[in-house]
Amino acid sequence: MNYLLDTTVLLDFAHDRPGALELVDRLFADGETLYTCDVVTCEALSGGDAMERRVIRGVLDALEYVAVAPTGARWAADARRTGRSAPGARSLADALIAATAWNLAATLVTRNPRDFERLGIPVLRYA
């Protein structure tokens, strides 16, 4: 199965938050195909101290990296345009992350599933 890790997983992993460590370890142990993308990489490495970024880089290095594809960018634009009239309009970052999951036919691993589920993206939520 394909999984795209959202920024929340990487940040929670770096902070030793319950659920994130166990889930990432289990996904690796099960031999699942785990991805990251340009948006997640940028978000995850934009903050934190040097130690947190080192932990995040370690996880990122173990993941398959993909960039947003042109078809994904168009899908994200459609999702944002449609979402502007609804409560909780999607951010550009979330729309691009969702589009990458859609393009990979991947389940998105996140602590914040609501906006992604509205877009029809399969989500694996952890606590």
Question: Quick gist of this model?
Answer:
This protein has 127 residues and is α/β, with parallel strands linked by helices.
Question: In terms of topology, how is this protein built?
Answer:
Blueprint (H helix, E strand, L loop, with lengths): L1 E4 L1 H8 L5 H10 L3 E5 H7 L5 H13 L1 E3 L3 H14 L8 H13 L2 E4 L3 H5 L4 E3 L2
Verbal overview:
The protein has helices at residues 7-14, 20-29, 38-44, 50-62, 70-83, 92-104, 114-118; strands spanning 2-5, 33-37, 64-66, 107-110, 123-125. With 127 residues, it is an alpha/beta fold. The protein has one domain: Rossmann fold. Strand 4 (107-110), helix 7 and strand 5 form a beta-alpha-beta unit. The protein is globular and about 40 Å long. The two termini are 21 Å apart. The mean pLDDT is 93.
